């Protein structure tokens, strides 16, 4: 890792070798236990290691990744999903995405860098647009909203305190959001 050295290339190749062996062993064990089982890759972070993705090639049926939308209008980066497709050739499941709003019924303060907007109307527009954007990528096979209910007032034990739910902490739906998803989800096959 000295200046001018090829240390980072060596680390990348080592990552690919170790991860490749791991995915090969896991794939073979799963296929032996159940030849029809869906083999899902590890949930990739937003800034994934391309060597880890390359190592999964041929050993997973679908890649899994979180995707933190960072634009209020729900824009989703095409290069992210195009890159995953080129590296792996496998379909992708977005295992987690959300939008939060400062205006919420659970008292969430939306601390930190994660996506949040001012109102529930803005939240609804951005979340629905993001779903349409995900659906427009041919290699995205599914999208999972995180999470069903808002985080408790005061947040989790790690300090995260976000309005991420389809319902508030009293189990009351955010009607604008759930109605928008009902409309968008009905159109997803046509968009895809």
Classify the secondary structure makeup into a structural class: alpha/beta
Question: How would you state the average pLDDT, rounded?
Answer: 95
> β content, as a range?
5-15%
Task: Please give the number of β-strands.
Answer: 6
Kindly report the spatial arrangement of strands forming the biggest sheet: 1-2-3-6
CA radius of gyration is 19 Å
How would you sum up the global shape? globular
List the secondary-structure elements in sequence, H or E. HEHEHEEEHEH
List low-confidence stretches.
none
Q: What about the largest sheet?
A: 4 strands, parallel
Distance between the termini: 44 Å
Helical segment count: 5
Question: What helical percentage do the residues reach?
Answer: 40-55%
Give me a quick take on this structure.
This protein is an alpha/beta fold and 192 residues long. The chain has 5 helices and 6 strands; from the N terminus they run H-E-H-E-H-E-E-E-H-E-H.
Description:
The chain has 192 residues and is α/β, with parallel strands linked by helices. The chain has helices at residues 7-33, 50-56, 78-88, 120-135, 175-191, and strands at residues 40-44, 62-66, 92-97, 100-101, 116-117, 140-145. Strands 1-2-3-6 form a four-stranded parallel beta sheet, with helices on one face. Strands 4-5 form a two-stranded parallel sheet. The longest helix has 27 residues, at 7-33. 28% of the residues are buried.
